[in-house]
Design goal:
The complex is a heterodimer of chains A (169) and B (152).
Chain A lengths: L2 H12 L5 H13 L1 H21 L15 H35 L5 H17 L7 H17 L11 H6 L2
Helix pairs in contact in A: 1-3
Chain B lengths: L2 H20 L3 H15 L8 H19 L3 H9 L10 H11 L3 H11 L5 H8 L3 H21 L1
Helix pairs in contact in B: 1-2, 1-3, 2-3, 3-7, 5-8, 6-8, 7-8
The chains are: A mainly alpha (169), B mainly alpha (152).
C-alpha cells in the first residue's frame, strides 16, 4: 500500500471517520505491518489527547430550556395561511363572476357582432355608411386642405393620408 | 419528525455547541435556531436533522456575533475550550495550547468532529464545503498537532 494513502487511512481511522468495511480491511492489513500498527497506535493516542483537551467528556449540556416558538410565530403562520386563502378566494370569485357576466349578462352575442360587419360593408359600398364612408373621407380631406392653407389643424388632428389626394382633398 | 421531537433529540447538543462557540446568549440563539428550522422547513429534506440544525446554529451564532460587533472576541472564544472540572496533566494543557493556534477553519472543523461528533458528511453540510475539504482540514489538524507535540 502507498505510504501516503496508508497515512491518510490511519488518520481517518483515528478520527473515527472510516467506513466500517474499510476499517475492517485496514485492521487486517495492520496485523501484517508492524510499523503501520505502531503509527496507528501513535495517531490513536494523539486523537485521544485531542479529545481530552477539548473536554468533550466533561461537557454538560445543562438543562434544556423549554422550546419557545412563541405565539407570535404561530400567529404569523396562521395569518399567512388565512391571507393566502382569502386571496385565492377573491381570485376564484372574480373569475367566476367574470365568466357568469360574460356568458349571461346581456352582452352582445358573438354571432350578433359578426352580423354587424357585412352591414357596415354594404353601407360603405353604397356611400351611406358612417364607418369611413366616401363622404366622410372626402369631408376629412377637405378639412385637411383648409387646415394646410390656413395653418390650423382641423379638429386638433392633422391627418396625412395619400387617400385624401386620390379622393380630391 | 416534528420540531418538538427534534428539539428533544438534538436541542441539548445544539445548545452545548452554541455555548462553547458563542458563549453568552446561547439559550436565545437556540430558540432562534429552532424558529428558523421551523420557518425554513428544510429539516424534512435534510439527510441529517442534526447536521441541519448545527448548520443553522452556526449561521445564527455568526450573525448574532456580527451584529454585536464581537468578531474579535469570537476568535478568542474559539480558542477557549471548555474548562475541565479537574486539572488535566501537562500533555492536555500543551495540546490545548496547540489547538488554540490552529487556523480558525481547521480548528472549527476539528471541533465539529471530535467534540460535536458529526460525521464528515455532516460537517460538510454544516460548513457548506465538500467532504474532501473536511477530510483535508482534519488531516491538516492532525499533522500540525502531531508536529507541535513532538517539537515541545
Amino acid at each position: 500500500m502507498n505510504g501516503e494513502m496508508l497515512e491518510r487511512l490511519l488518520m481517518d481511522r483515528a478520527l473515527g471517520g472510516l467506513a466500517p468495511e474499510v476499517e475492517a480491511l485496514l485492521v487486517e492489513y495492520l496485523e501484517r505491518d508492524e510499523k503501520a500498527r505502531g503509527r496507528a497506535e501513535e495517531l490513536g493516542a494523539l486523537t485521544g489527547l485531542m479529545r481530552r483537551a477539548m473536554g468533550s467528556e466533561e461537557v454538560e449540556h445543562g438543562a434544556l430550556p423549554a422550546l419557545r416558538l412563541g405565539g407570535g410565530w404561530r400567529r404569523r403562520v396562521a395569518w399567512g395561511v388565512a391571507a393566502g386563502a382569502g386571496m385565492a378566494a377573491c381570485v376564484a370569485i372574480g373569475f367566476w363572476g367574470g365568466r357568469s357576466v360574460r356568458d349571461g349578462g346581456g352582452s352582445v352575442d358573438v354571432a350578433e357582432r359578426v352580423a354587424v360587419v357585412p352591414a357596415q360593408r354594404e353601407a360603405a359600398a353604397e356611400g351611406g355608411g358612417e364607418f369611413f364612408s366616401v363622404e366622410r373621407l372626402r369631408g376629412l380631406a377637405v378639412r385637411n386642405a383648409v387646415a394646410e392653407r390656413t395653418g390650423e389643424v382641423a379638429g386638433g388632428v392633422k391627418v396625412e393620408n395619400p387617400l385624401f389626394r386620390a379622393i380630391g382633398g | 419528525m416534528e420540531i418538538e421531537g427534534l428539539y428533544r433529540e438534538h436541542g441539548g447538543a445544539v445548545l452545548g455547541y452554541l455555548r462553547r462557540r458563542f458563549g453568552e446568549g446561547a439559550e436565545d440563539l437556540l430558540q432562534d435556531v429552532f424558529v428558523q428550522a421551523l420557518r425554513g422547513g428544510g429539516v424534512k429534506r435534510a439527510v441529517s436533522g442534526r447536521a441541519y440544525l448545527f448548520g443553522i446554529a452556526r449561521h445564527v451564532g455568526l450573525s448574532a456575533a456580527r451584529r454585536e460587533r464581537a468578531v474579535e472576541r469570537l476568535g478568542e472564544r474559539l480558542g477557549e475550550v471548555a474548562a475541565p472540572v479537574e486539572r488535566e496533566g501537562g500533555d492536555v494543557e500543551r495540546m490545548r495550547g496547540a489547538m488554540a493556534e490552529l487556523p480558525g477553519q481547521v480548528r472549527e472543523t476539528l471541533e465539529l468532529r471530535l467534540r460535536e461528533e458529526l460525521t464528515y458528511e455532516e460537517i460538510a453540510g454544516v460548513l457548506g464545503v465538500p467532504v474532501g475539504t473536511v477530510r483535508s482540514r482534519l488531516h491538516t489538524a492532525v499533522k500540525m498537532l502531531s508536529e507541535r507535540m513532538k517539537r515541545e
